[in-house]
Amino acid sequence: MHSSTIMPMVVQAREVTASIYLSRREASQYMCVSEKFLATHLSDGPKRMRIGSKIIYRLSDIEDWMRQQEVSR
After folding, report:
1. Would you state the CATH architecture of domain 20-73?
2. Where are the domains of the chain?
3. Each residue of 41-61: pLDDT tens digit?
């Protein structure tokens, strides 16, 4: 499929599910951590999904995990 065909499908999917999915690279950039950090924190990092050989993260799961990492003084 051509990217101009895929993008409308992505927009429609987001409207239906209200979810945004990020690749490991996008998730690491969003979190300001390395891709290696995410690869090595499989059990204690944010939830992830495997689609074939790809790992993806739901943005809401990343935000939930980040809130759990908050520390008080």
Report:
1. Orthogonal Bundle (1.10)
2. 20-73
3. 988 999 999 988 888 899 999
